[in-house]
Specification:
Helix content is about 75%, strand content about 0%. Helix 6 packs across helix 7. The protein contains 11 helices and no strands.
Length: about 210
């Protein structure tokens, strides 16, 4: 794939994500599907092995330290929520186990988008260096505007996720870490701030 085509694929993918984030209802579902189809087609047609995409078994064991680090962060977040009196059960009508499993699947999908699509694209364009990591993290945080907690949180968390992918090339422990951190934030950070973890127009239209 040429550099110009790689830039085009990445920019269109990010543009579709932003449009989806800033629309609602059936329109949002259409743009969600368009973004998913574009990214999936780009990743599949590239024909790279699962190992390179982070979806194989290589690097799994050393990547488990990602979960260990996340556990420490989760403990700090939950302790802060407990100390501040903001700790609460997960919202929604689904049982917590089903809710958590569903979020874990969504976390893996986000990691495929973040790392298998965006980071690998910037890695080809900018080299296997900090510039590719920084660009990916900035886009990740930008997709969470205007949530005042999630923008800085995803900037820092994005750096952690991408750096772990850069080192180990395995998404499964990263997705577990992502899910753990997301659930901890949802339980510990006041909903008046995170608005059910919504971003884009959903954050602005959220009513407690």
């Amino acid at each position: 794939m040429t550099r110009a085509r790689t830039w085009l694929v990445l920019l269109v993918g990010y543009g579709l994500i932003l449009v989806a984030v800033w629309t609602e209802g059936r329109t949002q579902l259409i743009w969600d599907a368009a973004a998913a189809a574009w990214i999936a087609a780009a990743v599949i047609t590239e024909g790279r092995p699962l190992r390179e995409l982070g979806l194989g078994i290589g690097g799994l064991v050393p990547a488990l330290r990602t979960v260990a680090i996340a556990l420490l962060a989760v403990g700090i977040i939950v302790l802060a929520g407990w100390d501040g009196g903001t700790l609460r059960p997960l919202y929604g009508s689904r049982p917590p186990g089903i809710h958590s499993f569903g979020y874990a699947i969504w976390a893996l999908m986000q990691q495929v988008i973040l790392n298998s699509f965006f980071y690998r694209g910037f890695e080809r364009l900018l080299g296997n260096n900090r510039k590719a990591v920084a660009m990916t993290c900035l886009l990740f945080a930008g997709a969470h505007v205007p949530n005042p907690f999630l923008v800085p949180a995803t900037l820092v968390g994005g750096w952690f996720f991408v750096e772990m992918f850069r080192r180990y090339r395995n998404l499964y422990p990263i997705a577990v870490a992502h899910a753990m951190l997301g659930i901890a934030i949802a339980m510990a950070v006041p909903d008046a701030i995170v608005h059910h973890m919504r971003v884009g127009i959903g954050y602005l239209h959220f009513y407690r």
